[in-house]
Design a protein that fits this description.
Elements (H helix, E strand, L loop, with lengths): L1 E3 L1 H8 L3 H8 L3 H8 L8 H11 L3 H4 E3 L3
Antiparallel strand pairs: 1-2
């Protein structure tokens, strides 16, 4: 599967989920679903906005989970 490193990236950048939500215009609930690896899909525009806000690459945010 895929693991979302959102929690780790937020800590590294000193941001909260609520702050990220405000910056990217995505609800805290939807970001929480992504953060907890429960998302089934993500829009490219959302992915791009998160990566821009966190100054990271897609591969920094989404990684393959160990088997």
């Amino acid at each position: 599967g895929i693991h979302c490193r959102l929690d780790e990236l937020l800590v590294e950048r000193g941001l909260t989920l609520a702050e990220l939500s405000r910056i990217v215009g995505v609800s805290v609930v939807n970001l929480s679903v992504l953060k907890n690896d429960r998302a089934r899909a993500i829009r490219y525009s959302t992915l791009a906005a998160i990566c821009t806000a966190l100054d990271c690459e897609v591969g920094d945010l989404l990684v393959r989970a160990p088997e």
